[in-house]
UniProtKB/TrEMBL annotation:
<keyword id="KW-0805">Transcription regulation</keyword>
<keyword id="KW-0804">Transcription</keyword>
<dbReference type="InterPro" id="IPR039422">
    <property type="entry name" value="MarR/SlyA-like"/>
</dbReference>
<dbReference type="GO" id="GO:0003700">
    <property type="term" value="F:DNA-binding transcription factor activity"/>
</dbReference>
<keyword id="KW-0238">DNA-binding</keyword>
<dbReference type="GO" id="GO:0006950">
    <property type="term" value="P:response to stress"/>
</dbReference>
<dbReference type="InterPro" id="IPR036388">
    <property type="entry name" value="WH-like_DNA-bd_sf"/>
</dbReference>
<dbReference type="Pfam" id="PF12802">
    <property type="entry name" value="MarR_2"/>
</dbReference>
<dbReference type="InterPro" id="IPR000835">
    <property type="entry name" value="HTH_MarR-typ"/>
</dbReference>
<dbReference type="InterPro" id="IPR036390">
    <property type="entry name" value="WH_DNA-bd_sf"/>
</dbReference>
<protein>
    <submittedName>
        <fullName>MarR family transcriptional regulator</fullName>
    </submittedName>
</protein>
<feature type="domain" description="HTH marR-type">
    <location>
        <begin position="30"/>
        <end position="160"/>
    </location>
</feature>
<dbReference type="InterPro" id="IPR023187">
    <property type="entry name" value="Tscrpt_reg_MarR-type_CS"/>
</dbReference>
<dbReference type="GO" id="GO:0003677">
    <property type="term" value="F:DNA binding"/>
</dbReference>
Amino acid sequence: MARTTDTALKTRDADDTLAKARLDLFKFVPFRLNRLAAEVSAALAVEYQERHGLDIPAWRVLATLGFRNDACSAQYISQCTRTHKSTISRAVTTLLHDELIERVENAADRREFRLQLTKKGRALYEELFPQLLRREDEILSCLSAQERKQLSALLGKVEQSLDLIQTSEEADAKEAY
């Protein structure tokens, strides 16, 4: 009986301690990364949203198609950008309507269509990406060159621990994300 009471008291004390403790979101890395990603994405969105009427999902489609050498599927874009497939599908519909992307037949499987930039889409991508690189540089201006390298290396380590593809070449070689 005494042993049961001691165990119950220890369990209750542990529960009380846990109840008093709280997760400090501002020290919780997933929260910080999510918040940072949202802010950086919003800061970059000004470049393509206000000037060109593109929303974030549409830019993700353009950016993914812009860095690739070959056409790819909407599923690839969804996986690559970690954006829900229905969101990518809506963006694809809009971009097709605006003639910024086009469907091309997959030579390996004629039932499947892939996506690629049109000349108009390529021109927009070529106009936007230097602006986005400048904006990225502004955002990271608070870091020294060495700190930028360290940040990149640390992000790479986290990505690797999550088994994420880290290079365009690797993504192209696997044809999937």
